[in-house]
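Dear support,

I submitted the protein below through the web form. The confirmation email said the job was done, but the results page showed an empty box. After a refresh the structure appeared. I'm attaching both so you can tell me whether what I see now is the final result or a partial one.
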Amino acid sequence: MTQRAPATEKTDSLSATWSATAPGDAEAAVAAVYGLAGTARRLSSERDETFLFIGADGGAFVLKIANPAEDPAALEFQDGALLHLAAAAPAVPVPRIVPTKDGGRGHTLSTPDGPRIMRLLTFLDGELQHRTPASPAQSRNVGRALAELGLGLATYDGRPPAGKLLWDISHMLDLHALTGHVAPERRAQVETVLAEFARALPAIKGLTRRQIIHNDFNPHNILLDPAEPAQVAGIIDFGDMVHAPLVNDLAVALSYHLSTDDWAARAGAFLAGFQSARNLEPAELDLLPLLTRCRLAMSIIIAEWRSARFPENRDYILRNHAAARRGLHNIADLTPAGLKKLAPNLSEA
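What the results page shows now:
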């Protein structure tokens, strides 16, 4: 979902269009650049073209062909994070970069739409979390996996590309420009969250624990073991990484545990799992309920804006919309004290 631009109608990697790559052409490109024969099958993707590539020997890979508007620095930043994790935290289950025949991280294709960067990654076997039965045990393990990923990224010194990311909670106030696209019955609710964020901005700017964060730890980016769906088997999609307060990563992930009837149990288990590997600081805990509301409000605002602009992709864009609305309703009045009741071990922060 990467957009390194202010929250305006400006063309970026989510508003650019391009000609679709035929699977046969993708196969030919992999053979030429990586020396691998095989078949390519298109997968759904929001900002680039993604294929499942099965090699002639049965090996599985993910082929990504960036859209022409993608900033090469953004891809270099993502690749650097994966290489860093491979060295610094090899137990964290993330894709590995497959080198080209020349030893490069990727290859730039010449297309009628302009240069497009292709990359090949190892395929992680598992079931996407949103397709598995939810449970407190699963939420706990997902929380711990996020903490361990964050610990692995803590020493990554890569620099994000210039520009703002629309999905960065730190720039929540930029979304004022898009609230006119929100349905009238929801507009007051998201504007209330924006006002709450504005009042808390001095405290948010005062947070001292900052690092590169994944920033998109959601059930579409988490793979679970099909035989044991409480166990995390993989973490994918590093396209929304930013340098930001660590607690923002937790707020993003927590927002996806709040839309079910048992949301309190799931959220408590998730937070307990995170806390079992990495402590929250008191200032982070104080701001976590607000920052989580911010992420939910962002999901509503951005989805309604983008679905109006790209109605042909409406179903994909709105896939998390109903859950975000319900989650925001569930935690509209959640306080730090209420958060501690959900996960008592947070009191140890």
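Response: this is the final, complete result; the empty box was a page-load delay. Residues 23-122 form a domain with the Phosphorylase Kinase; domain 1 fold (CATH 3.30.200.20).
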